[in-house]
Design goal:
This protein has 116 residues and is mainly α. The protein is 61% helix and 7% strand. It is built from six helices and two strands, in the order ααααββαα. Residues 7-34 form a coiled coil.
């Protein structure tokens, strides 16, 4: 691609982004959020407080606020081999005993042994 074609493509993309920004700026939801943010910043400035102090006031640490969502822990499943009476607890399916059972007896058979 020639340099002039790259330039024109960038211009087109910039116009497209400007149109998207303009459409967002017209939305009432964005206006409300910006107004809220400004009001909070003014209150923080008025009382000489930082964002971390505000988060601490409401019981949130900076780490939790920035980390976003965290993965939930996997629920353990218990399988009991009816032939041997042996029980294993599995979280996620990568345990050595569980994999050995699947290889020896088959996945459907092992799944039928699920207790909880």
């Amino acid at each position: 691609m020639s340099i002039i074609n790259k330039y024109r493509e960038k211009e087109r993309l910039m116009r497209q982004l400007q149109e998207e920004l303009q459409a967002m700026e017209e939305k009432q939801e964005l206006k409300q959020e910006l107004a809220f943010k400004t009001a909070v910043e003014e209150v923080l400035k008025q009382f000489d407080k930082s964002e971390s102090e505000l988060l601490a006031l409401f019981g949130a640490s900076e780490d939790t606020a920035e980390s976003g969502k965290s993965r939930r822990k996997r629920t353990p499943s218990v399988y009991k081999n009816p032939q041997t009476g042996e029980e294993i607890t599995v979280r996620g399916g990568r345990q050595k005993d569980y994999q050995e059972w699947i290889q020896k007896y088959g996945k459907e058979t092992v799944q039928s042994w699920k207790v909880s």
